[in-house]
Amino acid sequence: MKQILLDVTHRIQERSAATRGAYLRRVDAAIQRPRGSDRMGCANVAHAFAAMPSNDKLRIIAERAPHIGVVTAYNDMLSAHQPYEGFPAIIRDEAHRHGATVQVAGGVPAMCDGVTQGLPGMELSLFSRDNIAMGTAIALTHDVFDAALLLGVCDKIVPGLLIGALHFGHLPCVFVPAGPMGTGLSNSDKAKVREQFAQGLVGREELLAAESAAYHGAGTCTFYGTANSNQMLLEAMGLHVPGAAFVHPHADLREHLTREAVRHVLSILPKGRFTPIGKLVDEKVIVNAMVALLATGGSTNHLIHWVAVARAAGIQIDWSDFSDLSNHVPLLARVYPNGSADVNQFQSAGGPGFVIRELIDSGHMFGDVATVSAGNTLRDYGRLPEREGDRVVWKDLPAASGDDSVVRPATAPFSETGGLKLLTGNLGRSVIKVSAVPASNHIIEAPARVFNAQEELLAAFKAGELERDFVAVVRFQGPRANGMPELHKLTPPLGVLQGKGFKVALVTDGRMSGASGKVPAAIHVSPEVLADGPLGKVRTGDIIRLDAVAGTLNALVDDTTWAAREVESITGDAVEVNAHGLGRELFGGMRRNVRTAEEGAVTWL
Q1: What is this structure's pTM?
Q2: CA–CA gap between residue 149 and residue 213 (Å, rounded)
Q3: Cα–Cα distance for residue pair 227/213, rounded to 1 Å
Q4: What mean pLDDT do residues 353-377 have?
């Protein structure tokens, strides 16, 4: 086992001793209670099961059969979640085959960041995670369930479901994915058309045709963004049926994996090898998730989300933990935007199973952790599921990668270090996804051009004002200011300028997420400007140095001048813009109470 893994885990355990201990005591107290239908009053029980068939009522109440609650993020707005429409019937049928019963306990909202990107609705996206966590709690607080299945895939949905489930840590839980859409227009070709549109070389008709060819069917988007990073991390945490992440929604194997989720969750009830989620997700499992993210160049959103997930289990992690691991974890996968392959090609080359096997064998990941798998070992996740008749079997992956341009063994990684870097300096703390950025752009030193909204930068680009070396400082984009939206609309124009040979970079207290591209971007700058963060001291013309090699982010302004400067603020109408319209008024309390990005941007502590 690599020493850095042991060292980081040990300091997390020490840091979390009090909060984790208190959490586990609450979990143990909940485990000791009688079953829900035995514990509750008769009127409560009658309400809970009023709509169920009489034979199911008999099973639950008289026979004390296992009762599974399903929390679903189904809607047909999200291509990734559309397949969930038919999952409850499959789950119910499989449960009946094993003498168990099922109720859909509740649904949670699931918004598509692709639909809202660059629009006011995107300002609700990050906060939707905690809304989903609360929705999960509302569903499970009916408190009649022996276990739970959680149906979700996309960006904020999986972290929200996981945070909610961890607040019911006494329940065995299995996450049920739906899989990626088939390969369409390549991600690199799509990006080219976007840049051509930004330059006015193609029109809206050509752009829409390209986008529609890329996003064309049921399943997750095929780039390795936050949604697909979610699936990688859940595999590494042992919360899926092994190998379930990237099987197509319409593949024959998909239904069998969904049925396996029922069998798996029934096997980890108290009468079996009892594995409640609150005990499964311990410090080692959280570190395994962090390692999996780094080894695959996954979404920077998880430097926010998994901090919040860990906190839900009483575990305290921070960006220094990610950074220290990243300095020693090898990069084993290149999937767009870190390479040209999509997730289907990643899966064909070996996928999560290959990566997990390599990380365990090389001592970069804990194999001795509890999982929901039949073998109760993370090594189960280094194998490949296949259908044999009416059952699923797991077979060893080939020793070699199916495509070493996509995934490699730990003995011959793409890089000796992971894909994420912590930046510190007089502008605060931030992160950068270096795995997608050419080495020639890891250091940028140029004058700042300050913007208080992404629309200002887009307008300046269209006006031809940015044809030079510069660092775009886009501020008032943090969670307190406007909910910390992703700023993907800035990628095409900045990419165009970089393509023309200009040295450009982005520095922001907002997000870019898993689709962060080839332009160096120091994101999540904390504290944010609205919390008196030093990014508010930057003035247009200041020289900014972003150094992803040394891990620094500084305004090269003399100390006396810097100390004397006031943090600029926004007032009046500018503040009101982000407070009203499209339901943003309803999230005012979250904006006022949210913690920093490095604290997980949680609103519930």
Answers
A1: 0.96
A2: 33
A3: 19
A4: 96
Beta strands in 173-212 (DSSP E): 173-176
Count Cβ atoms within 10 A of the Cβ of residue 583 and give its class: 0-12 exposed, 13-18 middle, 19 or more buried: exposed
Judged against a pLDDT cut of 70, whether residue 54 lies above it is answered with yes
Q: Which helix (H) or strand (E) holds 96?
A: helix 87-97
Helix, strand, or coil (residue 476):
coil
User: Does residue 179 carry a pLDDT above 90?
Assistant: yes
Indicate whether 437 pLDDT > 90: no
Burial 401-432 (b: 16+ CB within 10 A, else e): bbeeebbbbbeebbbebbbbbbbbbbbbbbbb
Report the distance separating Cα 141 and Cα 105, nearest Å. Answer: 9
Contact by Cβ (8 Å): 517, 388:
no
**Are 257 and 178 contacting, i.e. CB atoms less than 8 angstroms apart?**
no
Instruction: Report whether pLDDT(433) > 90.
Output: no
Residue 577 has pLDDT above 80, yes or no: no
Q: What is the DSSP string of 390-419?
A: TEEEEEEPPSS-S-TTTB--TTS-SBSS-S
Residue 570 pLDDT > 80: no
Please, which pLDDT band fits residue 182 given cuts at 50, 70 and 90? very high
CB neighbour list of residue 270: distance below 8 Å, 6 or more residues apart: none
Q: Where are the domains of the chain?
A: 3-32+65-182+217-396, 420-599
486-496 pLDDT, tens per residue? 998 898 899 99
Four-CA torsion 318, 324, 328, 329, nearest 10 degrees: 10
Question: What pLDDT sits at residue 488?
Answer: 85
Report the Cα–Cα distance between both ends of the chain, in Å, rounded: 34
Q: What share of the chain is helix, strand, coil (3-state, %, to 5)?
A: 45, 15, 40
Q: What's the pLDDT band for 516 if we cut at 50, 70, 90?
A: low
SS3 249: coil
Query: Do the beta carbons of residue 14 and residue 327 sit within 8 Å?
Result: no
- The backbone torsions φ and ψ at residue 72, rounded to the nearest 5 degrees and listed phi first, read -120, 140
| HSE (side-chain half, CA atoms, 13 Å) at 255 | 12
Query: Which three-class secondary structure state does DSSP give residue 67?
Result: strand
What rounded mean pLDDT belongs to the chain?
Answer: 94
Q: How far apart are CA 591 and CA 575, in angstroms?
A: 12
In whole angstroms, give the CA distance from residue 198 to residue 212: 18
| H/E stretch holding 449 | strand 443-451
Confidence of residue 569 (pLDDT cuts 50, 70, 90): confident
CATH level 2 (architecture), domain 420-599? 3-Layer(bba) Sandwich (3.50)
Helices 157-166 and 226-236, interaxial angle, to 10°? Answer: 40
Residue 484 makes CB contacts below 8 A (sequence gap 6+) with 126, 477, 478, 509, 510, 511, 528, 597, 601
Q: Are 522 and 497 in contact (CB under 8 A)?
A: no
**Which pLDDT score is estimated for 573?**
53
DSSP 3-state of 544: strand
Give residue 223's identity as a one-letter amino acid code: F
Distance CA 232, CA 129 (A): 18
The pLDDT assigned to 60 comes to: 93
The SS3 assignment for 523 reads strand
Rounded CA separation 103/68 (Å)? 6
